[in-house]
Fold:
Amino acid sequence: MTDFRIGHGYDVHALASGLRLVLGGIEIEHEKGCVAHSDGDVAIHALCDALLGAAALGDIGLHFPDTSDDFKGIDSRILLQRTAALVRREGYEIGNVDCTIRMQRPKLRPHIDRMREALAAAMGIDVERVSVKATTTERLGFEGREEGISVSAVALIFKP
Ligand code: MG
Structure:
């Protein structure tokens, strides 16, 4: 019987003016970006935690501590690549992943397919296995006030 595992990840970053917005492995034109030790890709961070969670390998902070200079300003796609390698080292393949990004602005619809492609490439899986969704919070909460972005992600992995 195939050994299936699922994992969940969640991350939040604050938004500040004048920073570049990197989300889902791509850069998006916007007047605000995420405050972070890395490039602030909150979608990739949630996804890494979902993959690590599925394999019961701890969390992103354990593997890539934000106190380490090695990860200062790092392209989060590298973190995702390394996370996928950790999961494979345990004998798992990645089945599929799904992310929900909560932010008020800008509209993410035009960027979704490029994000899926970037995430799929970093994990080394087909783009059909990668889903990215976006929603506003109807102007409610910190996402709605454009103070930050939150992302939840789930991942399914299996031992073939
Ligand atoms: Mg983070």
Q: What stands out?
A: The mean pLDDT is 96. Residues 76-89 form the longest helix (14 residues). The chain has one domain: 3-159. The chain is about 30% helix and 30% strand.
